[in-house]
Write a structure and sequence with these properties.
Number of strands: 7
Helix content: 25-40%
Strand content: 15-25%
CATH topology of the largest domain: Deoxyribonuclease I, Chain A
CATH class of the largest domain: Alpha Beta
Shape: elongated
Number of domains: 2
Distance between the termini: 34 Å
Structural class: alpha+beta
Radius of gyration: 24 Å
Strand order of the largest sheet: 1-2-4-3
Length: 212
């Protein structure tokens, strides 16, 4: 059991270090996500090792230290998403629909051709702005049925699963399509006019997922 725990401990430490590797490979970036799971596994392993560690073995103590560092790192990553972290956006009790915006974001899945089902979900949401990802040229044509309701658009369909289309009921200004992350991954930048006359900035992006 002791050997098994040390193997798990080594894997936990390595899993915490891998995200620091400057690589876009899917198996590297995949470790950017399971922080909560790694924290639980690392913490459990640490507790169990405390019962079987040899007090005179320096190497085993070093492994415990590395586990503590791994736990601290994972907790630092997780903390901003907990109830204990300070809110980045302040709550408000003011109910002013003219100063608010209703946003709909969906990954339509490029190979998905069930437009009717999407249309029902979309109309039920009735957003002011819609950001649609993985939109290819087929999806671009289908989405034209919303032209009258959403007269302001930015369309950049692609067949590489990174197409993006923006539909808006609200006026858009200074809209630009940029390629900040990769030459094949577009992002949309610009300004949106709220109903109360306030201009706000808008950034739309499809982050690169960890995939082979």
């Amino acid at each position: 059991m002791k050997i098994t725990l040390f193997i798990i401990a080594a894997l936990c430490v390595v899993s915490s270090v891998i995200p620091f590797v400057a690589s876009k490979k899917w198996w590297v970036r995949g470790f950017d996500f399971p922080h909560l799971q790694l924290t639980v596994i690392t913490g459990t392993t640490f507790i169990l090792l405390c019962f079987v560690i040899d007090p005179k073995n320096l190497l085993e103590w070093m492994i415990l230290v590395f586990l503590i560092l791994a736990i601290i790192y994972q907790l630092v990553i997780i903390f901003p998403y907990t109830l204990f972290a300070k809110k980045e956006i302040a709550s408000t009790s003011i109910k002013n629909s003219d100063a608010s915006i209703r946003v709909f974001s969906a990954n339509v899945l490029q190979d998905n051709k069930d437009f009717d089902k999407f249309s029902k979900v979309f109309r039920k949401a009735n957003p002011d702005i819609a950001i649609l990802l993985e939109t290819d040229y087929w999806w671009q044509e289908e989405l034209h049925v919303f032209k009258e309701e959403y007269p302001f658009t930015v369309e950049y369909p692609l067949d590489n699963y990174y197409g993006i289309i923006l539909l808006s009921k609200l006026e858009l200004k200074d809209m630009k399509v940029k390629f900040l992350m990769d030459d094949e991954i577009p992002s949309i930048h610009g300004n949106v006019l709220l109903k109360n006359g306030t201009w706000i900035k808008l950034f739309c992006l499809h982050p690169t997922p960890p995939s082979p």
